[in-house]
Amino acid sequence: MSLCGELFPMTNKIEIVNESDGEKYKHFLPLLLEHKDRVYGYILTLVPRPNVADDIMQDTVLVMWEKFSDFKVGTNFYGWAKCIALNKVREYRRNTSKSPLIFDEEVIDRLNTETESNTENNQALERLETCLKALSKVEAKLIELRFVDKATIKKIAEYWGKAPGSVYRQMSKIIFKLRECISRKPVGLE
């Protein structure tokens, strides 16, 4: 059983929300609206047809609502929703296993692993964007010249009227600053 299966076993039990849980449920809709497209895209990577993905997405949202009292607000909502979606995809697969268009369990596991890798890359890119916005105008221009325009250190030095060694040291400091920023800016607290 996958980690998702252990964390979020599928049941058909519908729980009644306590009044004390009501305050927590005000977070559900904003979180769902923020992440629904990513969850739907994830489901689309695991099933062959959009109409099937639509049905699984509806079932996923229903389970998310039913299980929201188990979710800890402030943790990774997308990761939690993705586990529920994976369980729903597996449930769908079990129910339709005779269909030749349905992926087998090994293919679903591979696609899930690829999607997790892509999610990590997307989160790193989001952190990089945030960190780039925090740079000064001069630092941002240097990064743009070097990595967007693909200018050499020598060309950048000529552009700024500085020695190449000076530009190289400044670029090294900016890159170090970006690495530090990326490593301490968690985006996963969604």
Task: Briefly say what this structure is.
With 190 residues, the protein is mostly helical. It has helices at 3-7, 22-25, 28-46, 50-67, 77-95, 105-133, 137-148, 153-160, 164-184. The longest helix has 29 residues, at 105-133.
What descriptive keywords fit this protein?
Rna Polymerase Sigma Factor, Chain: A
Notes on the protein architecture:
The chain has helices at 3-7, 22-25, 28-46, 50-67, 77-95, 105-133, 137-148, 153-160, 164-184. By secondary structure, the chain is mostly helical. It has a domain at 1-102: RNA polymerase sigma factor, region 2, helix turn helix motif (Rna Polymerase Sigma Factor, Chain: A). It starts with a helix and ends in a 6-residue tail after the last helix.
Indicate the CATH topology of one domain.
Rna Polymerase Sigma Factor, Chain: A
Helix and strand element order:
HHHHHHHHH
CATH class of one domain: Mainly Alpha
Q: Work out the number of β strands.
A: 0
Layout: helices, strands, pairs:
Elements: H1 3-7, H2 22-25, H3 28-46, H4 50-67, H5 77-95, H6 105-133, H7 137-148, H8 153-160, H9 164-184
Helix pairs in contact: 3-4, 3-5, 4-5, 6-9, 8-9
